[in-house]
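Model: You mentioned two targets. I'll fold them one after the other.
Researcher: Yes, keep them separate.
Model: Target one:
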Amino acid sequence: MNDNRQNQKHTIAGMATAFTESVSTTNPETALTTLGHFICDHLGDKSAGGCPGSLKPGETDFTISGYFIVRPEYNDMILISEIGWPEEQHRLTIETGEGRPGWVVDNAAPMVLPNTDDDATFTQILSSARMGSSMYAPLMWQGSVLGLVTLASQARYSYSNDDLPLLQLVAAHAASMWVSLGGKEFLSGAATGQFLPKDRNR
């Protein structure tokens, strides 16, 4: 069996496990975190960090993911189900139209930045490091944008357009899980800061 076929089988098996686990919980954040681990583990070129020019001096490749959920009543988006983000950015909020996440929500379209250095409008949201490659896909439900999922690695050229279809598939499932598990109600304590505990499974 060739390597591509083997990789495809591995990815499909990982997706089946993640999707099955995500429908086995009643907590919307846990469901989205499960899907976040899947995309961190299976999307992108894991060898990109070893290519010349992919990392600048002092950089070490690592991957983060998370979801920004739109809160129309506050004109912002709030970070949930984050993986690899600093503790101080837990429940981070950004303006609805801010940066590339804002573009994805405004346009209801996915985006991939193979090398963020080449994107003049890219703004770094992660506080601890600049990410070299990133992807985004909107969470769509009945024609409306609920938010987006983001995936980023410090190594440049980690992601390409080839990775977008699977990210969009995960985003579609994440949207359905968010709605079916009462995501809106989960965020109902936003004004007072009352949230369910952050999922820390890993």
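Model: Target two:
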Amino acid sequence: MAPQYLREPPTRSHAGAGTGGLGSGQGTPDPIDLLAERVSSFSRSMSSLVEVQKERSELDQRREQHLSVWKAAGYFAFAVAVACSVLFVMRGAVLGLTELFGGRVWLASLTAGLIVLATFVVGFLAATLVLAKRRERVASERRQQPPARRNRRVAVTRRTLF
């Protein structure tokens, strides 16, 4: 299907255009009207392209939001599962320590709590040591590397010339 400016003659006429003036045939469309129609058509197509891009970006943004919600729900479910498993393991340990300590539940609960606390303290100390070693290694690597030279041009003045 041909564009509108090729199908219909223009409705406006300018001086000398389309009236049999110099160099123009009787039914020739006005070049200014053709140009105006082309610009209008281009403007409409560009605005529709902008709308399409805007809708695509909104859909991408909405898709990313949905994905982040699903990820958060997955992380929460995983955390709940880990917490439940730790709770069941601790319950079993307390019941076992209760039998070991002759039915004294308070002593078994205290011992299990201290074991868990000691585990967290040891993990924290290990993480601190690993980070300290990593920082020390990075600092020693920086000391061994020569400083980077700046390759910039300097204006020639009295101070830089002599």
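Researcher: Noted. Anything on target two?
Model: The chain has one domain: 29-142.
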